[in-house]
Amino acid sequence: MTYNMINGNRLFHTDEGPAADRAGETVLLVHGATCDSHDWSAQIGAFSARHRVIAPDLRGHGRSSGLTGGQRPRDFASDLAELLDGVDAGPVVVVGHSLGALVASVLAVEYPSLVRAVVAVDPAYGFEAEFAPQLAAAFRVPDPVGTAAAVLGGLENTAEAGPEAEALRVQHRRRVLAMDPMTVRDVFHGLFDEAATPLTVRPGVEAYLSRRTCPVLSLSAADSLKAKGIDGDWEEALTRHPHSASVVLEGVGHWLFQERPAEFNALVLGWIDGLPTA
């Protein structure tokens, strides 16, 4: 079954990989804001060869409806907790990109029994305090979709040339343009309005992330860290588990796992293989 009714919304997901009684982890792939589970097309096959892989579309994104409830990280985490219960999965390794990395961290803090480990890919947290109200205000406009397209376009790796790189940029832009404007507005307000700042900006987010007790692998683009005013050691200092690690990649954009899928897959799968026994 690829659709489940979760908290009043019809959520799409796929569930692939070895049978539950075989060796391997269960991996939950969580996409970013205004994206969908298609983002993980280069990961699903590689990961499901060794692990059970669950890839949902968050409420209001992709093929999932979003008519009921909010569009905040805790709303998405609540949906995923119910989904995992419904498909008899957990604890899982949550691999989250951007907003998805924040949702993965909320799952780890609020639903610790469901989370074995977190992989945070260019996460949507760790911003300077002044950044959040500026971005929240930018979405209080008649055309929040246009704002989102401009903001996300600024995160692309424009230095990368060639048809494949251009195809990725076109794909990302067209997907944003296809979204419901109010959903786009609510998703970004849920990340950057005043109520969201304890989860996204420093120093408040540092206290929240420190509540994660599971292993955390952080993978970030160097340019993203520079824009936030932090370095790769920042998140590693917030994770208490000895298997945690932080990796910074040069010359990539926000969708680093799509730009360098072979490198990304090998790095993450290798780290998962080294997780301590549950």
Walk me through the structure.
It contains 13 helices and eight strands. The protein has helices spanning 41-48, 73-86, 99-110, 131-138, 144-153, 163-177, 181-192, 197-200, 204-209, 222-228, 233-236, 256-259, 261-273; strands at residues 3-6, 9-16, 26-30, 52-56, 92-97, 115-121, 216-221, 245-249. Strands 1-2-4-3-5-6-7-8 form an eight-stranded mixed β-sheet, with helices on both faces. Helix 3 links the parallel strand 5 (92-97) and strand 6 (115-121). The longest helix is centred in the middle third of the chain and has 15 residues, at 163-177. The mean pLDDT is 94.
Helix content range: 40-55%
State the secondary-structure class. Answer: alpha/beta
Strand content: 15-25%
Structural domains: how many: 1
Would you count the extended β strands for me?
8
What is the string of helix and strand elements? Answer: EEEHEHEHEHHHHHHEHHEHH
Mean pLDDT, as a whole number? 94
Based on the coordinates given, report the CATH architecture: 3-Layer(aba) Sandwich
CATH superfamily: Alpha/Beta hydrolase fold, catalytic domain
Largest sheet, spatial ordering of strands: 1-2-4-3-5-6-7-8
Q: For this entry, what is the oligomeric state of its chains?
A: single chain
Main sheet characteristics: 8 strands, mixed
Radius of gyration: 17 Å
Low-confidence stretches: none
Chart the SSEs and their pairings.
Elements: E1 3-6, E2 9-16, E3 26-30, H1 41-48, E4 52-56, H2 73-86, E5 92-97, H3 99-110, E6 115-121, H4 131-138, H5 144-153, H6 163-177, H7 181-192, H8 197-200, H9 204-209, E7 216-221, H10 222-228, H11 233-236, E8 245-249, H12 256-259, H13 261-273
